[in-house]
Design a protein that fits this description.
By secondary structure, this protein is mainly α. It has one domain (about 5-150). It is about 65% helix and about 0% strand. It contains eight helices and no strands. The chain has helices at about 5-20, 30-40, 45-55, 60-75, 80, 95-105, 110-130, 140-150. The radius of gyration is 17 Å and the shape is elongated. The relative contact order is 0.15.
């Protein structure tokens, strides 16, 4: 899913959570709501890190263009063709990283709000994968993606 949709949806859902949280006896502070909102789209910084590693370039603008182009190419491919190619591994998009955040939440409750922002983001990614016909496991576990990538073609 494109960053602008994550940003807009993250903002909308955060406003709804902030507005209705007192009704369930769990009122949020503005700071906690801000953490949820920022987490709902900053999780995608792993895309930027991957771009830096692959392309040896720090331009955020070029990174955005790079991933938009890759997305267009992938979407145009038939599903069978897509499955022949490796998927990028995004370190913040898997249960492995979320487990670390959950562990940190045992020391600071603020990490629970980070996890909630991640959940907002990931629900959108999972919906996107369902619509595109891609296996959701690749957006749930980066270890699984790594294993599934073995023997596949590099993605252009």
């Amino acid at each position: 899913m494109l960053p602008k949709y994550h940003l807009l949806t993250g903002l909308l859902v955060t406003i709804l959570i902030y507005t209705f949280s007192p009704l369930i006896q769990l009122p949020l502070t503005l700071f906690q709501a801000t953490i949820i909102f920022l987490s709902s789209f900053l999780i995608d910084f792993d895309h930027y890190f991957l771009y830096i590693l692959r392309e040896k370039n720090l331009s955020l603008k070029r990174a955005t263009k790079f991933f938009k182009q890759k997305r267009k190419i992938r979407i145009k491919m038939p599903i069978r063709e897509r499955r022949k190619h490796k998927r990028f591994i995004y370190i913040f998009h898997g249960i492995e990283f979320w487990s670390l955040i959950l562990l940190l939440a045992q020391f600071s409750y603020l990490f629970y709000f980070v996890l909630l922002g991640f959940l907002i983001h990931m629900i959108l990614d999972w919906i996107d994968f369902i619509i595109l016909g891609d296996p959701i496991i690749e957006k749930f576990s980066q270890s699984a993606t790594y294993i599934r990538n073995k023997g596949k073609l590099e993605f252009i």
